[in-house]
# Entry
Amino acid sequence: MAEALRVGIAGLGTVGASVARVLRDKAAELTRQCGRDVVVTAVSARDPKRDRGVDLTAAKWFDDPVKMAQTADIDVFVELIGGADGTALDCVTAALEAGHHVVTANKALLARHGVALAAAAEAKGVLLNYEAAVAGGIPVIKTMREAMAGNKVSRVFGILNGTCNYILTRMEAEGLGFDACLKDAQRLGYAEADPTFDIEGHDTAHKLAILTSLAFGTRIAAEEIYMEGIGNISQADIRAAGELGYRIKLLGVAQRTESGIEQRVHPTMVPTASVIAQVHGVTNAVAIETDILGELLLSGPGAGGKATASAVIGDIADIAKSRPGFQHGPVFGRPAGELEPYRKAQMRAHAGGYFIRLTVHDRVGVFAGLARRMAENEISLESIVQHSAGAGAEDRKTVVLVTHETTEAAVRRALAGMTEDRQLTDKPQVIRIERAG
Ligand SMILES: NC(=O)c1ccc[n+]([C@@H]2O[C@H](COP(=O)([O-])OP(=O)(O)OC[C@H]3O[C@@H](n4cnc5c(N)ncnc54)[C@H](OP(=O)(O)O)[C@@H]3O)[C@@H](O)[C@H]2O)c1
# Structure
């Protein structure tokens, strides 16, 4: 049998400790599958005394993960510390320089430094595997990088943040407000104490940036992503969406258009009957549309120690099965030096349907005024529904408009016109509608 694969794990938190436990529990099965033993020979975290729920005394402890990355006593460096820069970047860079394969679950790191790290890995002829960085346990990276060779992707989109999907699911199912659902998510460990990163869409954006590169062969451009979070989604939106046959999801969408590639993260209305609308709670899903395959939807657990460990261990097993001298495939599907510059499609050019909820003065001529502004901007309406604005707001009306396909620029111009006409009493709510099968 080939020599054992020696694994160093940096970071023994939710994911790292889980990886160590699964490697122990599944050792015999992994040996059979990989044709060699997979052994944890080195570990690093901040606190050497903390109980990790797994006996790691046989592994060498490193206070400094960069030193661990440089040791000749490992074959694979597994980075499970987190963070876009700092220690995670230093130790992954050091591991690649030392000629070690690297496995990471760190989307923030890849979204910022992915192309440079891929170039370093390819120059050294080692693997940089990152299945767990996008949608946790769902094998979307392998699917896109390996199983879809030759396919030309037109759009990739998904529910990539379990916290947001949990909150939106509870808001719809139980009629609760955003704050109450967020508090529950925190109590259950689905949301961080500081949830900003999830709620405002940054986490989704990091994952989307990686998917965009894989889908379109472009350099990662996370900073170019248009982003809106779910913080201003109200019960009024959720109810109106339901009445119109839609459900609200926070989606990350990357799409090829004539003017470039759109990358956007925002609350989105998807038809209630679509498959992605059935993805509830903390579950993630990724939909991929290509010329050969048509539409594919992968769905499953997007986070949590065990599910994420499953993806990390799949990556480690691929390394264990690879043979010395074998040329590894490129990290982002094509060599880092051949990734094309990202050509951004302007958000104003985005074409699609729009849900627009307006609160207007209840007076003669307002409706005609709204219709005029829409017509002027060549926006045709699929539906228009009018409600009373509720108790205490008898002098106002809520108007919900659903447009046929139009452009972002036209919608913004029409709303600016309505504001200029002093017809609106509140800031309009605009939610884009996404085509989904
Ligand atoms: N949690 C998930 O469900 C999930 C899902 C997908 C991807 N990920 C990604 O996986 C990575 C790890 O996430 P996690 O949830 O496991 O994080 P975590 O529970 O906070 O664990 C982080 C670990 O890193 C260690 N650490 C922090 N700074 C260090 C330093 N300077 N030197 C050495 N060790 C250091 C910590 O040590 P101590 O324990 O001693 O403090 C801890 O063991 C992140 O990139 C995250 O985005 C997580």
Observations:
- The CA atoms of residues 7 and 223 lie 33 Å apart.
- The mean pLDDT is 96.
- The longest helix spans residues 107-124.
